[in-house]
Amino acid sequence: MAKTKMIYFFGDGKAEGNAKMKDLLGGKGANLAEMTSIGVPVPPGFTISTEVCSAFYENKRSYPAGFASELKEHLGSLEKLMGKKLGDANDPLLVSVRSGAAISMPGMMDTILNLGLNDQATVGLGEKTGNPRFAWDAYRRFIQMFSNVAMGMKGEVFEAILEKIKADKKVELDTELDADDLQKVVTEYKKAYKKHMKSDFPQDPVEQLQKAIDAVFGSWMNDRAIHYRKLNNITGLLGTAVNVQSMVFGNFGDDSGTGVCFSRDPSTGKKVFYGEFLMNAQGEDVVAGIRTPEKLSSLKKRNAAVYDELEAIKDKLENHYHDMQDIEFTIQQGKLFLLQTRNGKRTGPAAVKIAVDMVAEKMITEEEAIGRVSPDQLDQLFHPGIDPKMKKSLSPLAKGLNASPGAATGQIVFSAEDAEAWAKDGKKVLLVRKETSPEDIGGMVAAQGVLTSTGGMTSHAAVVARGMGKPCVAGCKSVVVSGKAMSVDGKKFKEGAYLSIDGSTGEVFEGELELVSPKITKDLATFLGWADKVRLSAKREGIAGVGFQVRTNADQPADAKVARKFGAEGIGLCRTEHMFFDEGKLEIFQEMIISETAEARADALKKLLPLQKKDFKGIFTAMEGLPVTIRLLDPPLHEFVPKTAAEVKELAAKLGIKPAQLKAKAEALKELNPMLGHRGCRLGITYPEIYDMQVEAIMTAACEVQKSGKKVHPEIMIPLIGTVKELQMLRANAEAVIEKVLSQKKMKVDYKIGTMIEIPRAALTADKVAASADFFSFGTNDLTQMTFGYSRDDIGSFIGDYLDQGVLPRDPFQSLDTEGVGQLVSMGVEKGRSVKGDLKMGICGEHGGDPDSIDFCYRTGLNYVSCSPYRVPIARLAAAQAVARSKK
Amino acid sequence: MAKTKMIYFFGDGKAEGNAKMKDLLGGKGANLAEMTSIGVPVPPGFTISTEVCSAFYENKRSYPAGFASELKEHLGSLEKLMGKKLGDANDPLLVSVRSGAAISMPGMMDTILNLGLNDQATVGLGEKTGNPRFAWDAYRRFIQMFSNVAMGMKGEVFEAILEKIKADKKVELDTELDADDLQKVVTEYKKAYKKHMKSDFPQDPVEQLQKAIDAVFGSWMNDRAIHYRKLNNITGLLGTAVNVQSMVFGNFGDDSGTGVCFSRDPSTGKKVFYGEFLMNAQGEDVVAGIRTPEKLSSLKKRNAAVYDELEAIKDKLENHYHDMQDIEFTIQQGKLFLLQTRNGKRTGPAAVKIAVDMVAEKMITEEEAIGRVSPDQLDQLFHPGIDPKMKKSLSPLAKGLNASPGAATGQIVFSAEDAEAWAKDGKKVLLVRKETSPEDIGGMVAAQGVLTSTGGMTSHAAVVARGMGKPCVAGCKSVVVSGKAMSVDGKKFKEGAYLSIDGSTGEVFEGELELVSPKITKDLATFLGWADKVRLSAKREGIAGVGFQVRTNADQPADAKVARKFGAEGIGLCRTEHMFFDEGKLEIFQEMIISETAEARADALKKLLPLQKKDFKGIFTAMEGLPVTIRLLDPPLHEFVPKTAAEVKELAAKLGIKPAQLKAKAEALKELNPMLGHRGCRLGITYPEIYDMQVEAIMTAACEVQKSGKKVHPEIMIPLIGTVKELQMLRANAEAVIEKVLSQKKMKVDYKIGTMIEIPRAALTADKVAASADFFSFGTNDLTQMTFGYSRDDIGSFIGDYLDQGVLPRDPFQSLDTEGVGQLVSMGVEKGRSVKGDLKMGICGEHGGDPDSIDFCYRTGLNYVSCSPYRVPIARLAAAQAVARSKK
Description:
Two copies of one chain form a homodimer.
Chain A: E1 7-11, E2 14-15, H1 22-37, E3 45-48, H2 50-58, H3 67-82, E4 85-86, E5 92-93, E6 95-101, E7 111-115, H4 119-129, H5 132-149, H6 155-169, H7 179-197, H8 205-219, H9 223-231, E8 240-246, E9 257-262, E10 274-279, H10 283-288, E11 294-295, H11 297-302, H12 304-321, E12 325-332, E13 335-343, H13 348-360, H14 366-371, H15 375-380, E14 385-386, H16 388-392, E15 398-399, E16 401-404, E17 407-413, H17 416-424, E18 429-433, H18 441-446, E19 449-452, H19 460-468, E20 472-474, E21 479-482, E22 485-488, E23 491-494, E24 498-502, E25 507-510, E26 515-516, H20 522-536, E27 549-553, H21 557-565, E28 571-575, H22 576-580, H23 585-593, H24 598-622, E29 627-631, H25 645-655, H26 659-669, H27 681-686, H28 688-707, E30 713-718, H29 724-745, E31 752-757, H30 760-764, H31 766-770, E32 775-778, H32 780-788, H33 796-804, H34 821-835, E33 840-843, H35 851-860, E34 864-867, H36 872-887
Parallel strand pairs in A: 4-5, 17-18, 18-19, 19-20, 27-28, 27-34, 28-29, 29-30, 30-31, 31-32, 32-33, 33-34
Antiparallel strand pairs in A: 1-2, 1-3, 3-8, 6-7, 6-8, 9-10, 9-12, 10-11, 12-13, 14-26, 15-25, 16-20, 17-24, 21-22, 22-23, 24-25
């Protein structure tokens, strides 16, 4: 049997891997191999595969047989190519050891640099380079990093030693320490190591390397990494790869430096060569955000040749990968090295612009472009901004970097824990930090937005916030954070004060500002147009020639108009009960509920009829020409009855009855499990007069709007059907009312009568139910509640444990459980269509706006999804992607 | 195309129908034809088929084409055979028009007698028979019956006329009126008819016949008949047939009479010729219970020849039908006619005795015998009786007929409405009536038992009560009912007073007596032995060679012992939470619940451990050698927390905490939909220490009982699984505890770990779940709740409407909904077995005791059902019948 290859070499223009081997070599390793192959200057090295990581965890953190010898062999090749040996006393080879999974997890896993140094090699390095200060600085950095990352010592121990030696010498900056000082630092570091680890700092470079590899693999399962994967729904990976690469130094002097660049602006998408660098620095200095870096343009002044070479490489890489690249580079003594390239993360607006531009540049096709913007990124384009009218009259309190677009407003807090605690109490907060670190992720999730006082566009805060689609202003230097307060130019703001930030401009404002939603840009319209082209090309049963549609859930004409502007092709769910909560209507509805006789109920309903009719006329007018699915009354009646004594007293007075009588009625209506109680079509069966009134209001409204010249397509939807008998009876009742209205009005209206499929039994017997239905709408909220036996209102007490312990991969109310609930949906579709081949089917649960769920809905054969108005464009894209995916 | 035959003739030893044509001719019609064919003297006539009834309703109460001519033709044949003509002025033919469906519905539908009389024919009949009084009496009866039944007039109108004429003549009995008086009655009746109907009483006998047929068909859909069919789950019938039969008269004089007899005693099953008759009376007089009839034995004295003929016919019929016969006969002027025979209704004890005796007589096989006792009848044998020790010292207040066996105790009420209203308020009532009528059925259902002061063993009260398995004492003459009170020998009992009745002896006692359950008789043991033989012969997957088993749901050793005595083959469901409600345990459990830390919780659980262990030792000991399925904690924790302020205060004091603290904890635990909340295995995931304690208690108890030499087979059942991950995790936890206990005890115990399938998702993913389960137990209570979306606690507000309007054929919590819920059960079985062919499966919902559901469970492939201890014998029979049925 062939031995599985565990390690892949790259260097000298040749590589054993390539860009397609991301699953095996991680994104970084695969691209290092690819770049090497296409002639980009990359320091040689090798990649230990993710399969080794997987085996490491399967075998209780030990390595597969033969690993040690394969490692030795590749290290030998690297030493031969470089003409240097690890730990050599005269001219030592130094390597970096870095993580790199198939999906980028920035800052989540460990890295060790300058590995291979020991006491002797440091002296040799100093002599060889003629720069002992550099050698001692590299050694002290290595000890600190190795001790922290590989051995678990706290970084503060080493910070304290460094600070003390600087204080002793009365200097402030590390750079003010000379070689002797740094040698002293090393001596103290080693002492500290021995004190904590009860052994000497390892001098054997092979031992160092093995421990570093252990640490990187170990970091795959650290809490931060696990949390990050859960947050980003990253599943199914084997593990991380480990990249061992010969070191190049950006901190070799003023002719050295390091930087990060993007082939286009990751914030706006503009086609500009965009990046930052620091001279005489290592890469970590740029990412950590401790020093504020220079713009790439100033590199041209410092070293035009290197700049030109970098620019040419950037173009080469973008053309090679057909996507915007995020590139890490180091200049060592005037020579350029590329350390990493990957498809760059970008904001939503940038993703759209880059996709549209690249189609114009003929770099990608329209259909490829659709896949370049994730629905979550598109969502960012619909994030609110600060009301421009208000903004005109304001001057910002401070200005930082526009690190992640969108505006946010809230009360300021100064730690991730506080952000989470305040948010849990229902408060909207802004997280203000000097800089963020991976420990702050939970707080960033909880906050409306993030504001940092240091760090650049590629700092932790900026990168992570963009990934989350969370507004962020970074590097806002005038903000001084101190404990649980901050000040700007002497003005103090305590915890809980209101601030607003605009992550698209970098501005910070005092107070709680009004936010507004953005408009659809030309690029966005173009992009969504392509998405619609794909989406509407889908072949669907049920509605001929109109593809896979997107409708909206809207109860008010205003919402309907917004949704229509965003491209909704109809209303998938208009909840009539929300209308009853309006001023003026609630009281009449309550009067109806507490009626003791059918006559009294009829009187109250007669008063409601014209009001309901008005509601429906508004909706029909707003949705002219498009179908409108109206769900008849669904919630149990007790939801409309007052709960507190004061409310009872007030209503009783209005209705002219005794509070005790009203209280008794409310008591009688109470249910132990209202979710499974007297609601939906069960109300329609026991109080047919309520549904009769609603149907009369719908049809009268439809006639009147149609008479005014507007086309109407009402779809009457009966909720909570569990048996076909319910639907048969209620359909017959509705048809009688409709017949009455239409014959009175002497009109014809194109109407449909259908049902929700939201009770498991309805899905199980969908072949029976279909016989009486013109359409099905899957109510996946209730279907999820009943299929799992989870009350959405009560799930809070255990869902946290369930997600943390991996019982559930995701909250099934956010993303449809395709395995269980999805099985019922599929069954409903199949059984329904077995009876009526062209039965129109859609989904109106909250899942209708979730991209993964939309994909499932398409695969299952639904005709449309329906979601909230602001999710409509996102659903249009997700639907297009689902269609495109299914073609493959 | 052949015309469908609508009417079937019988008479003169030949018949167009036979006993197998019950669906078409109804039970009565089919048997009249059969009796005619085998030479039993039956008055000739014809039967209009149930297909005509069905067509009648399909065509808006009109008849199929050709019906009138077919009717005319058959009437002609009858007239020819009888040598008389309907309405003939000299010698008129008189006919009865009776209903008769395929399934007997005694007293529910309409009958008209003496049809064919008019003014002229009555005179002719008087002359021909030489008995004008008889003729005028027949006519006045006919007018009254026809007007009431066919024309909808109130009977009271006629009663009033009759009473007035009797008063005028100063007589009390109808028999004291002579021909002239009756002619006067007829004149007044006809006046009343004209006044109410605005037309003369119809003189055309063909018109009379048609109206009578209309009325009988119409009575198929009267409220009583609909109610009766619903109560008895009678579905799928076409309608009723109509039997038109030449009249014979039991009221022709003292040499005439009418009666009802059974080929064996329907109350005890003894092989005695049993019956009642009244001389000079029509059949209605016997059934109505107005006069108390004579025992059959006295017929022998009155007319030995007729008695002998009747006895011979009875034997002939029983031998012909191989079942106990219920026979109606009339003697007209010394000549015997049979009017009806059918398989007789019988009590449970009679059903068992007759079945066992007939096997001994080689009349039927053992397997046929099993089908002769319905599970509901068997249930009657397990009805309580009055504690014999107590009874010894009591003398009865009164004694009536032992009309329906079993004892009952309760507060007396005097109308069906009151019985229903009081029962609704949770009171146990006895319905006391002079006599019952079909209008009283609702009250009889609601009552514990029925006591009547008039009427015989075949009176309405007796027949209906036996059918319901409801204790009944009938014809208790010393009871005088007056308004809402009764008196016995001058002693008065008002509404609400407590009485007890023993329907097996006919005794009535004062006060509320203790009831006890009966023992298993030898016949019953024999019968159940046959049932078990069939049941255990069933081939089942899962448990080799043990057939289709019956287990019990029991939480206490006492219950377990009762169930074992009744034949339970294991415990299918032992609910551990019931144990926590015991004195002493509840407080510790509450302490555990309100614990703020895992340590405090552990302390409380440590205290509970020995108590739980003791519970389990008791159960294991009682069920020695049999499997015991123990369900880990299922209900949400708030069920154990006090609700009222007083309870909170008391518990807080005991636990040494502040009431506010306890109240806050209780508030925090509250749920909007507890049924879908934090319960079952969700508790096991969030508080693993609770399940760990329970598993430790189970296994320690198992070890200790096994050490004492008794075999134990614990089956640990994890409730409310929705995902296999839950089961995997909880199984791993349980196995760790088990390993610990067994290694400490150095023992091996035969244990299993399985799960409930009660969440729809568990059934849908049963192939995944099966991988981690040793057994499945279908929890069809919860499965029904979630599949329908019905809260069992809240269903009351609409289930009445749902059953009344036919949305649901039966309450799905009483009889498993095979179409919907059953689909999930089947899916669970199939998917589970697709992974583990021998996966043991059972049902532990309440459905496990319902015969129809047991049949479904067998067909679906389950290994066992589990039900309450007292249902075990019924389930054994139902299981045997299911097995026998599936062989056909």
